[in-house]
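Bug #77: duplicate submission created two jobs. Keeping one. Sequence:
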Amino acid sequence: LFDYWDQFKTVELSFSIDNIGKQFEYERYGILWDTVNNNISKYASNSAYILNLYSTVNALNLANSYNIYKYAKDLNIDITFQPLESPKFLSICNLPKSVKYSIRDKLLQVDDKDFLKKIQPFILIMIQTEDKPTDIVESLGYQDKLRNQKFSDYYPELFELIDQETSKCP
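Kept job's structure:
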């Protein structure tokens, strides 16, 4: 395709990347992060291309959303966060209230005004929306059995926050 693309005045490439590293591999099971990262880096190193990164904010990645933001920023790629629509159990609004506040507090400590401007609408939606919390760990359990993996291995911080909240229940 490179030979064809060279004939155009501009070429714009958009990537749908919700996380990085092993968390990317959990969310996009069957795809290796190193392969994706190498491809993105290859395009980012060519100034002839305009690159965009779209990241869907969900219960798995919100707490670590600064990582994907920083990844894009380091490669000089514009990033747009967008809300998850489905599956509902991965909605940031379905997290237990104490988990929401922990995530909010963590994100508001990031010292990057541009990132905060991009992520604050999601924090507000998460905090202000009172959906009935679903058990994300239970919902991911079936998937984990099929894949022979554990959610807690990929998201230990989130797992611990949810586990602490659910252990309070009688």
